[in-house]
Automatic annotation (TrEMBL):
Domain of life, source organism: Eukaryota
Domain Luciferase residues, every copy: 114-190
InterPro entries: Luciferase, Luciferase_dom
Official protein name in the record: Luciferase domain-containing protein
Taxonomic classification: Eukaryota, Fungi, Dikarya, Ascomycota, Pezizomycotina
Organism expressing this protein natively: Aspergillus candidus
A Pfam family that the UniProt record links to this protein: Luciferase
Length: 216
């Protein structure tokens, strides 16, 4: 039994290392920390967060128009396989040739965590960002994203020293130009929310006209 347990633990540890660098040191201590966090991780990352009754704008940005051309289209392929907590990575359907120009042609500014809108992972081209709770529901429903395993209410995990917002999601890597345009609009929605514009009733309507997809 001890040999079986040791073999299983070794396999899981190597799977953790295979995810590459991220928010946790690639050490036995880092693996132990992630193993403990797994005990409190979300059981279903496809369940959207609740929308607080005190929120002035309960609709989010991605569904603010009654016209169907302004709705985020359904992602045309199945969800990829996602693994890990910190790091969290996309294991399948990661077209690493889709966004090479993003890292090479656009200068990085405000790269510290305190002023971050989103960040992309060079290894798989997925992104992490924070959305309005209604936009979290929209991106999940349409197949573009899932919640981070630690995306709980801020006071739930206070003992971690660094809270993960309830609207923190992984957006899947785009597979072609049309998907890339949709992902960039999701990034725009994240900027709208994180900047504070989403707290009120304003905001610019996101136009997905011409992208095709399921507009129901």
């Amino acid at each position: 039994m001890s040999l079986l347990t040791r073999g299983t633990g070794t396999r899981y540890y190597h799977a953790f290392l295979a995810l590459g660098p991220g928010g946790t040191p690639s050490t036995p201590t880092g693996y132990l920390r992630i193993s403990l966090l797994r005990l409190i991780a979300l059981r279903n990352p496809l369940t959207p967060p609740l929308i607080p009754s005190t929120l002035h704008n309960p609709q989010g940005l991605l569904r603010t128009s009654s016209s169907t051309t302004h709705f985020l289209p359904t992602r045309p392929i199945p969800r990829p396989l996602i693994s890990g907590i910190a790091p969290q990575r996309q294991l399948t359907h990661n077209n690493t040739n889709t966004m090479p120009w993003l890292s090479s042609s656009i200068p990085s500014t405000n790269t510290s965590n305190g002023s971050e809108i989103c960040h992309a992972h060079p290894s798989d081209r997925s992104l992490h960002l924070t959305l309005h709770p209604a936009d979290v529901a929209t991106t999940i429903e349409r197949g573009w994203a899932q919640r981070h395993p630690l995306a709980r209410d801020n006071d739930t995990l206070w003992w971690l020293g660094r809270c993960v917002p309830a609207g923190f999601v992984m957006v899947y890597a785009p597979g072609d130009g049309h998907e890339l345009r949709c992902v960039l609009e999701i990034v725009r929605a994240a900027a709208w929310w994180v900047s504070g514009d989403g707290m009120g009733g304003g905001g610019t309507v996101v136009d997905f006209g011409g992208l095709g997809g399921d507009n129901t």
